[in-house]
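Saturday, quiet lab. Running sequence design on the C-alpha cells for the scaffold JK sent over.
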C-alpha cells in the first residue's frame, strides 16, 4: 500500500480500522497511546506536606510536571496550585507545632522563635564617653572645568597632575 512505511523489507498493511484520535479510542473501541500514569494521591499528599517542589514530585512518580498537574485537575477537580497550597500549609502547621515543643526544652530554639516571630534582636549599645582628641578635617576643592579637562589629558598622556583650586 502506498503511504505506509517499510521496515526491513516488510510492508505494514492496514487492517481496515477506523481511527478516531479525538477521544483517544480507535474504531474497535480500544484505547490508543500509552497508558495513563497512575498517581497515588496519599503519596502526593505526603510530598506536598514535606514541601517538595513540583519537579521533585514529578520525578517521584516518573512523569512530567504537566502530567502531575493534569491528574490533579482530572481526579480532584481543582488546580494543582490550590491542592499544593492546602497540603503544604498542613506541613507548615506541623513544623510550627514541633518547633514550639522544642522551644520548651531547647533555649536556642526559643531564641530563634523570639527573634523571628516576635521581632526581638540581640543589640549591643556602645557608648563612648570622653573627649575626642583628634579633629576630623575635610577639605573640598572646586576645580574649574578647563582645569579638570587638562588634568585628565595629562593623566592619559602619562604625565603628573597638578591641580590648583580657583
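Result came back. Writing it out in full:
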Amino acid at each position: 500500500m502506498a503511504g505506509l512505511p517499510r521496515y526491513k523489507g516488510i510492508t505494514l498493511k492496514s487492517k481496515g480500522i477506523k481511527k478516531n484520535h479525538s477521544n483517544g479510542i480507535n474504531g474497535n473501541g480500544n484505547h490508543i497511546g500509552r497508558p495513563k500514569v497512575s498517581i497515588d494521591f496519599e503519596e502526593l499528599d505526603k510530598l506536598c506536606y514535606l514541601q517538595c517542589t513540583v519537579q521533585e514530585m514529578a520525578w517521584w512518580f516518573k512523569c512530567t510536571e504537566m502530567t502531575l498537574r493534569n491528574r490533579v485537575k482530572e481526579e480532584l477537580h481543582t488546580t494543582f496550585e490550590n491542592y499544593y497550597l492546602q497540603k503544604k500549609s498542613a506541613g507548615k502547621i506541623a513544623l510550627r507545632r514541633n518547633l514550639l515543643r522544642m522551644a520548651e526544652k531547647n533555649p536556642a530554639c526559643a531564641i530563634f522563635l523570639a527573634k523571628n516571630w516576635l521581632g526581638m534582636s540581640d543589640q549591643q549599645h556602645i557608648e563612648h564617653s570622653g573627649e575626642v582628641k583628634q579633629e576630623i578635617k575635610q577639605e573640598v576643592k572646586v576645580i574649574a572645568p578647563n582645569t579638570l579637562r587638562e588634568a585628565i589629558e595629562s593623566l592619559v598622556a602619562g604625565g603628573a597632575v597638578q591641580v590648583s583650586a580657583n
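Notes for JK: Confidence is low (pLDDT under 50) at residues 16-21. The helical segments are 41-49, 54-61, 65-76, 80-105, 107-117, 145-156. Ask whether to fix the surface positions before the next round.
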